[in-house]
């Protein structure tokens, strides 16, 4: 189970599209309104129609010390025929009585139950050790930012060593070793993250030492991992596939020319 507070909901999930609407009980896009969504399982960027969503809510009417609360639930089924997995989210908000009836505000607690974290779907050609560290870092980001940051630093070091084959050492030295190998925008992103708050000092320490960071800094590290996976691994694989396709076309043309260049009978 992954727990958010109201300030930590990530932008790549449907929960960031929260609006106050009567027909959804105050949470999520109004039914009948297409929802832009990225599947957390297959990574497919898509638009969700009503037939792929089910949203409902329940109000707490019992007098209590915590106030008037509404529990929102939402199922989303991925429309990708090769995936079709279910995402399930629960949120809590406060409701108030207005001239239009009960209205709920923005959720103050959100639980992403299925899948258990907001980790992006990683392609199979990313090293499994990197994927495992990344997924766990996402899973515990808000519950334990310090442990999440430790896993992210180890994940970052694993990516640099695997992709660039740098000589093992301190993470800060390994980052410096790839400065002239990466494009300026990617390097600027790495450099910017390590200069924020406590992160820069932490990269000079052993990657397994748990250091004090907040959830915002832990999120920056996770975002850096995702950026590097897209810019390095995914871009390299897409380039490889394009070049293989070009070579295949050329080979086919060569074979056709050779087959048709013999003397006529």
List the main descriptive attributes of the protein structure presented here.
single chain, 265 residues, alpha+beta, 2 domains, six-stranded antiparallel beta sheet, two-stranded antiparallel sheet, 6 helices, 8 strands, 19% strand, flat, disordered N terminus
N- and C-termini, Cα separation: 74 Å
SSE ordering:
EEEEEEEEHHHHHH
Ranges with pLDDT <50 over ≥5 residues?
A: 1-27
Give the percentage of residues in beta strands.
15-25%
Using only C-alpha atoms, the radius of gyration works out to 24 Å
General description of the model:
It is a single chain. The protein is of the alpha+beta class. The termini are far apart. The chain folds into two domains: 113 residues, no CATH class; 117 residues, no CATH class. The chain has six helices and eight strands. It is 38% helix and 19% strand.
Secondary structure elements and their pairing?
Elements: E1 2-5, E2 35-38, E3 45-48, E4 53-59, E5 69-77, E6 86-98, E7 101-104, E8 109-114, H1 128-139, H2 145-164, H3 171-177, H4 184-194, H5 199-202, H6 215-260
Antiparallel strand pairs: 1-8, 2-3, 4-5, 5-6, 6-7, 6-8
Helix pairs in contact: 1-2, 2-6, 4-6
